[in-house]
Sequence to fold (429 residues):
Amino acid sequence: GNEVLESTTIDEHDLQLSKREKMEKLEEQLRSLPGAVWRLVTNVTFITICFACAMEVSIVSGFLTFLSKFIELQYEKTASSANILTGVVAVPAAFIGIFGGGFLMKKFTIQPKPAAFLSLVCNFVSLLLILTLFPVGCGNPSIPGITVPFIKDSTLTSVNLSLTCNQGCGCSYDGYAPICFEHDEMPITYFSPCQAGCTQKTSIPGTSTKNYTECSCLSDSGYPDAYLTSGKCDLNCTMLPVFMLLLFIIVLISTTAQVPALMVTIRSVSEEDKPFALGLQIVFLRALGYLPAPIYYGRVIDSTCLLWQTECGSRGQCFVYDNIKYRHYYIGLCAGLKGIGFIFFLTAWFFFKPKREASDEIADHELPDDNISTISGHLDHRNVAGLRSYMAGIVHSVESLDSDYVYRHGGGSRRNSWHNDNHYRPRSP
Fold:
């Protein structure tokens, strides 16, 4: 009974000691936290590489969020096909880029300073490629009263869907129902059949397409027998393959810089600060990249809307965007973020002085293989293991010589043979 009581008392004592040690360790970590934060925020390389990566994340979070919408509106694709194109191009390109960056680092044993330069080069090349996207797009659809004036008008000063030819129709513009007039010079898309002043509608058997005739706005323009079909007119834009190819290359090159940038982050801080540095960098990426990017991307895109839906006195969805302005603002914002990221990458590369790791210090203090006289110069607490291995090799060599002597001369070992050697026996008087 006494033994059980003593064992229980010892266990409780050990548990209290363990809790006390954990609390002391936690207090020590909390006391060292301000110093770690100060070391990181005053580390120019670490801060600039964090901002550079935040710019890259902002592009990923904002650009890719609205990429399918951009393809849908700019190149007149359905929402499903735009999403498929985005996934088919962006995901494989990112996978190949990240894998390729790691492969380059491994294959050519790229050191930290060249890795920072590689990130800088990848960022600069992708920035140049983004600039080539400005002309790669389609024009605006010709919508009378929104993007172009009515046929009889000469100028368009503001959005105005009402004209004398449709004023008596009592048109409601709460819903967008485009119809197409295949004009010889330029296809014209009307906002709705009511805006074109159409009074007759016929359905084409076997299809969902409808034809509209007796349209007063076309009759007044000299096309009394014209008919319009439901849906927007085709812009006959062939720039989508070019855009998708450039997008693939841009994503590929941009993601190639991720592994080198991670190496720069790790080697820019001391050994003890690495875990905290990675955590702080994630906070940077979330606060400056993932969270705000979709917000300001959305605001920039909304500024290109030409006609908003008005429902119950409040603004709803956008009916018509200015495609040219949309493309310029959307690509321009990406180029701007890339440019800011390039400045941060350049600053990080300029100030980058890699921190030495423990493995590097041991390698610098490795013992030579053929000069035992230098052993004393390497007696340092960081290479005790190397010295021990070196001395073990010497002992092994001596034992090998001893075994060889036994094999050649027989008898005991060489160190024992000194006592049996007749040459060293004292002579009898």
Observations:
- Strands lie at 179-181, 188-190, 198-203, 210-215, 228-230, 305-311, 314-321.
- The chain has 14 helices and seven strands.
- The longest helix spans residues 2-41.
